[in-house]
Amino acid sequence: MKRVTLITLLLLAFAAKAQEVKTLTLKDALTYALENKSDAKKAKLDIENSEYQITEVRSRALPQISANGNTTYNPILQLNALPGDFFGAPGTTILAPLGQKWTSSAGVSLTQTIFDQAVFIGLKAAKTTREFYQVNAQLTEEQVIERVANNYYQVYVKRQNLNVLDSNYVNTEKVRNIIKGQFDNGLAKKIDLDRIVVKLSNINTMRQQALNDVQLQENALKFYMGMPIETKIVIPQTEFEVTPTALAEKPNTSLRTEYKLLETQEKLLTYQKKSIVAEYYPTLSISGSYNYLGQGPELPLFAKPEDGVYWSDFATIGLSLKIPIFTGFSTKSRVQQADIKIRSLKEDMTDTKLSLDLAYENSRTQIDNSIITIKNQKENVQLAEEVLSNTRNNYTQGLAPLTDVLDSENALTEAQNNYTSALLDYRLAEIQLVKSQGALKTLLN
């Protein structure tokens, strides 16, 4: 019995923990995403991998040392035609076998590049690759921040719409109760009661749809954060106080991460072109080897001279020079292809600069318009609340029909939704403005 009780308590504790609600500020959401989202993690792995790429290229400039060994058995030795003079039979030709049935060798060899332009350029390119991944990681983090911030504010709007419907349901229910009381006392028409009941049913249906929208948007936010979908979250209301953003002068596009990434790509393509041009250069390397050779009629590995097996060592030192003369124009063609890639990237850089300038100007315009719209819609909500309050009083006093009350409620709902939509437009435009200034990470402060 005690064991069952203990298990039950553990299950209840686990369930309570699973249902624990996490209060999520924008800073919390962004910090969590940068630490847990797979995109950010993979970008960091790319930086780590670039270090190994540099080591790989650097190895081409270091000595290459290898050991080798082999054993060969020759069941049939090759016969060579030799003058009989060597064997005391002048004027004749004798077929004599050369070599032994068994040969074994072991040795070590070394190769060192002295001059190879492609190796030097490859090392510079590898270091630029590291720079590319570092800039790309920064861009990835900014993209994660942008996606999370956008979805964070969209969750707020969905929840605000749900709150509006909840409030309207409560207020409409109060009106329904008043009308029902009047109807029971013979002071109201049945059609008025039916209308308000239909209104309540419609609000409840819209509320279910809004609740579903909130859940879907929250799931999207958790996905972009890398957070378990089952986690319950709450977004503080204070996160959405509107404070006019300072509109600075047009930012320097060359400082934007997107543009820096293209500049790094241009460096890589330039090194790629240089590495192809390096094929026109001669290459020089030195090599050496030291070997030990055993021969005899038996397996030399464990045999001795008494068995007819003899071991001897030999060594070589060589200098290798390779001078390209003619490659059938393949190198020239690849150089031209690399040059076209660079020119094409320059066009992308020009287009990207225009795109970034456009985003900045559009975000400024959107912010200006959103501030005006927010002010107007806030006043409109207050006015709609006053109209609804007066209309309800007139209805209870028999001075206004029920349709006026329903129209006033619809007008208030529309005004409230327009206000939250304007707030969302402002926040999204603010994110784009901060992005255009290259300051998305300030959202983490």
Automatic annotation (TrEMBL):
Molecular function per GO: efflux transmembrane transporter activity; porin activity
Subcellular location(s) of the protein: Cell outer membrane
Listed InterPro entries: OMP_efflux (IPR003423), TolC-like (IPR051906)
Keywords, comma-separated and alphabetical: Cell outer membrane, Membrane, Signal, Transmembrane, Transmembrane beta strand, Transport
Signal sequence coordinates: 1-18
GO cellular component, one term: efflux pump complex
Primary location: membrane
Pfam families: OEP
Protein family according to the UniProt entry: Belongs to the outer membrane factor (OMF) (TC 1.B.17) family.
Xref: PANTHER family: OUTER MEMBRANE PROTEIN TOLC
Protein name according to UniProt: Outer membrane protein TolC
UniProt lineage: Bacteria, Pseudomonadati, Bacteroidota, Flavobacteriia, Flavobacteriales
